Amino acid sequence: MISVDVRTRTANDVRSVHPSAFFGGELPDRLREHAALATPGATELGLRPFAFDVDGEAWTIAFDGHEFTVVDGDATAAATVRLDREELDDLVNDLRTPMGFFTGGDLDMPRGRLEDFLDWWVVLRSVLDGRPVHTSGAITFVDRDGDPLDLTRAFRVDDDLDEMGSFLGEAGFLHLENVFSEDEMRAVSEEMDAAMPQYAPGDNRSWWATTQDGTQRIVRMQYFHTASPTTSALLADDRLQRLATMTSDGHRLRKPGGNSNIVEALVKPLGVVEGISDVPWHKDCSLGSHSYRCCSMTVGISVTGADAESGQLRVVAGSHRALIQPAFVRRNLDLPQVDLPTRTGDVTIHLSCTLHMSQPPVARERRVLYTDFSLPEQAGGDPGERKIKRIREGAPTTVSQPAVRR
Asked: Contact, 401 vs 128, CB < 8 A?
């Protein structure tokens, strides 16, 4: 039985980072120590010199194709990000990524592009976490017998769990056909309609979007199990619960970080012009906390079928095994993009590190439930569902590198 638990940190590992100690000593040391992990991938990334300005003091990190350097100042930098001390803590501690700053509205880059920051984030995570930067051809796909893996394969819910787990571990996703009946999904859909009046914009329990005709539509209902008896019954059903046992890790039904929002009901309307409905390429850990939570399993239950015209899920196979940008897909990424069309009652599973996206529907709306199988909490605890305040005074400026279990 496989393991997909790649956590290397707990809340006990969160530390305060002194900028001059980090850029003047720790980072150059890590770049030298882990050069073999970072250099091949950095060569493919084509990195530009990048400056970190922390509370007005700057350092530039560069790569000349052979070695990394860190120098004072930002005169040679093609791109710059401005951070305060707490933001540097978050970045180094893997609590926030460049996408975390971007989506939080506090990304401050007076020069360069977000892509520059994402590229250098990959290198930073490589040398801080001891992981190789992805290179073309590094990931292959084989089944349990060593034969090429058929990435288009769909399983049945009563198939062998070890075989399904092996596929999930290689590909980072899984498609199961006919898990639930059309009658069950019809009941869920009717309960979605009945629950909608219980939600309102700004209630912190729902997401809303505006369509081309100016209509404001609810697109995500959180805590849906409290409004849907059918959904609550399905979450407890062995057809779903047994899927959590595909790994040896003790996954169980709950949100990462212990959030009580167990299941969300999503509607994918046509013609969205404002608001978040169909999310572009991203990993579920794209905002941060990969090393504290991955890999959880995100489980999608197709209340209606989905295809290229009705908002199907797409995944980048093997991306959970690759240290790459946590959002967007680089043009030169060699990993295959796989469509996951589903019928009513089908289930999809993707690991939290798997790049995925949902296509905007163009012909028919889509309805889907999303829940999670999360890893059991570690002894050191989880840093929290959102960015938390750190213990800053008296904290060490360096800690030993966490053990890597890849």
From this structure: yes
- Residue 315 in tokens: 């995944």
Question: pTM, whole model, 2 decimals?
Answer: 0.91
**φ/ψ of residue 140, rounded to 5:** -120, 170
* CA–CA distance, 107 with 257 (Å, rounded to integer): 24
Closest CA to 313 of 302, 324, 323, 303: 302
Q: How far apart are CA 359 and CA 307, in angstroms?
A: 9
Average pLDDT over residues 103-128: 97
Contact yes or no for 71/60 (Cβ under 8 A): yes
Task: List the one residue out of 16, 11, 96 whose CA is nearest residue 292.
Answer: 11
Whole-Å CA distances, 195 to 27, 198, 268: 51, 5, 16
pLDDT of residue 403: 33
User: Closest Cα to residue 23, out of 66, 57, 67, 64?
Assistant: 57
Contact between residue 294 and residue 350 where contact means Cβ atoms under 8 Å apart: no
Report pLDDT digits (tens) over 177-189. 999 999 999 999 9
Please determine, for residue 397, whether its predicted confidence score (pLDDT) is greater than 80. Answer: no
207 vs 382, which has greater pLDDT?
A: 207
Q: How does the average pLDDT of the chain come out, rounded?
A: 92
3-state per-residue secondary structure call for the chain: CECCCCCCCCHHHCCCCCHHHHHHHHHHHHHHHCHHHHHHHHHHHCCCCEEEEECCEEEEEEECCCCEEEEECCCCCCEEEEECHHHHHHHHCCCCCHHHHHHHCCCCCCECCHHHHHHHHHHHHHHHHCCCECCCCCCCCECCCCCECCCCCCEECCCCHHHHHHHHHHHCEEEEECCCCHHHHHHHHHHHHHHHHHCCCCCCCEEEEEECCCCEEEEEECCHHHCCHHHHHHHHCHHHHHHHHHECCCCEECCHHHCCCCEEEEEECCCEEECCCCCCCECCCCCCCHHHHCCCEEEEEECCCECCCCCCEEEECCHHHCECCCECCCCCCCCCEEEECECCCCEEEEECCCCEEECCCCCCCEEEEEEEEECCCCCCCCCCCCCCCCCCCCCCCCCCCCCCCC
Q: What local confidence, expressed as pLDDT, does residue 257 receive?
A: 62
